[in-house]
Structure formats: structure tokens, C-alpha cells
């Protein structure tokens, strides 16, 4: 390659990467609005329907209301992560005066989402003459009063996991597939434990379930590191680079960041659900704040990425053009007479 072209190529590549970062983060997070936020409503079906019509007039499609027969069932649904809030009409009525309504939220879902829910339902109360009290049954700890520790914890796990996979490739370039997988497993447990040590024991930012958090974090590291290592093994540096772009500038905003997946474009959130960052953020919140509920889907996503990574590591390495050209053909043995 001509020396004068290299700087131009570097600038073009850097600009394209910058466009991916800017387009992904700003595209997902610059104009956020709620869509299909699941809310349990403890009221008769007719009142729930009327409430839905009223809320749709303010923000169409923002909330997905489901009628529940009892407050206990609705609270269980909130704790099990089936809904994001519970609205109890009490002796109030949608079509008339009343008092005693209550909005039950889980602060661990994030301050922004709970702020929107509180604003909307208290605004409904003011418009209808119903007093709406707010109760938080899963409050955030004082060390994470903004609810963003889980997001940054995942960021600070995904990036070192990618780096670890690349460093292993340089440190043990001739290792076989079995040894590479063993090293990735060991490194995942060590890196996962180190991050949990900082987040839980040293800072108290994600305290309360260290062993479960260690398990989830180690699985996240292995899913990311094994896939990166596999992409590097099969496709070389471009494969690892594309993996890093998919996981960081695309995967992180596709999780919804501090707003959550209910506040970004629906197609982007649906895509992000199948990427490790979004799955890991949900898993971390669920083990730390929700007693390990609703872990099935996040663990499935991480497990699928880990399986794909193992498959790529085990796959035969494709020879480059240079490698094929350096192969010296074996000369045929001369024929011998009898």
C-alpha cells in the first residue's frame, strides 16, 4: 500500500467509526418517549379501559395497561418483573371524583422511568380530582440513587472482556482450541470476580447478592470474550473489530441506557434484547434488586452468545491469501523401474 494513502485510510476508518458511535447513541437517546410500558391496574376492566383511553389522548401507545383483581397479585407481578408499575384506583373512579388512588413503583427500574410514571399518573389524578400517592417497594440504595450503577458496571465489564480476548490471542498464539476455551473460562471467573469485588465489597454500589452477581458477570465476560476470540480466530482483526463495534456503540444504546428499553425506538430495543449488554443490565438488576426474578431470558441470551463463541473458537481457521501463497507444493517422487 502506498505510504501516502495510509493516513487517508486511517482518517476514513476513524470517521466511519465515529459515525457509528454518533448515529447509534444519538439515534437511540436523543428523542426518547415511552412506549408500551407495562402497568398493572387494580380496578374493574371497564375502569381500566377508560383509563387507557384517557392516557392515550396524552401519549398514544405509551402504556400497556392490564387489569388485576387484587393488589397483592399486582405487587407480585411488579416484583417478578412482569410489569413496571402498579396503579391502584382505590375508591376513586376514572369518570368521577374520588380519593385514595396509589401508584406503586420499583425505584430499581430507574429514576427516569419512575419519574415519567409518577408525572403521568399524578397528572391524571389532578385532572380527575383523585389524590395519587406514590409508594416505592424496591427503592434504590443510597449508593446508587440514580439507578445507573448496573449500566456502568456492564460497560466496565464488556470492554475489558473484549481486551482480554485480544490479549490472549497475542499471549498464546499457538494454543489449541481447548486451551483457548479453558483460558477464557478461567479469565472470565477472575475478571468477573474482580469487578464484583469493586462494585460490591469496595464501593457498595451493587451490594446484596455477591455470589449471584459474580455468576452473572462471569457469564457475561465469557460470552463477550469467547465470541470476540472466535471472531478473531475465524476472521482476524476485522472480525474482532466488528464484534467490538456491535457490542459497545450499538449494544449499549440499544439497551436504552439510563432510560431503559421502553424509551427508545421499538425496533432498536427489540434488536438490543438479543445483545449481551442489554441482557446483562437486566440480569444485574434482577439479581441485585429483585431477588433473582426474571433471569431466564437474560441468561438465555448470554448463553447463546457463549455457545456461538465456543463454536467459532472450534471452527477451522481460514487461511489468508498470503498463507496460501507461501505453501510449497510437494514435489512428486520419481518413478522407479523394476
TrEMBL record:
Ordered alphabetically, the record's keywords are:
Membrane, Transmembrane, Transmembrane helix
Q: Which organism is it from?
A: Actinomadura decatromicini
Which sequence ranges are marked TM in the entry? 7-29, 148-171, 183-205, 211-232, 239-256, 295-315
* Name the record gives this protein: ABC transporter permease
Statement: the UniProt record of this protein carries the keyword Manganese: no
Q: Source organism's superkingdom?
A: Bacteria
- Please indicate if the UniProt record lists Disulfide bond as a keyword: no
